[in-house]
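FW: tagging you since you asked about this chain on Friday. Here's the raw sequence from the shared folder, copied in full. Didn't touch anything.
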Amino acid sequence: MAGLRSLFLDHYEAFRKRLRRRLGSDDLAMDALQETWLRVERMGSTQPQRNPVAYLFRMALNAATDQRIAHGRVLTGAEVEALMEETPDSLDPSDVAHGQAEIAALAEALRELPERQRAILIAARIDQQPIDTIADQHGVSSRMIGKDLKKALQHCAGRLDRPLVQRFGPGAGKPS
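HL: got it, structure written out here
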């Protein structure tokens, strides 16, 4: 834990600059970093195995997303412009490395799923097949497909340390 705290403090300015560039506002970046500090304090003694600097930056991005959702904020024009101006050449190598690590973690999470849940997740989210079609293919009800899909999504979200956002029904668009 002391290691994450000191890493956070050592990289604070770099995080602030990257967040300001991503979010389009120094105030939003500072708010996200303050929330990240509180989360690091609450974590206890756990420390990520892989890249702790990328882990801390992802925590800050997640904190910014959580704050935006909590406040019902939409992107400002400056934020949209900042995102539009970001080109592959301007990507930070640590962001690329973190993205590659997340892809690897997702692949591992998919391998851990039971075969049917993996097939349902891929059919529904990657191949964009309707639930009824998937149910016919597996010889089960649409409700069962929905349950398996939810379990698969929860597993992957948990392995990636991300909130699961409900797409339909009451509370849609909010972390569940």
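FW: The mean pLDDT is 81.
HL: agreed, and The chain is about 70% helix and 0% strand.
FW: great, closing this out.
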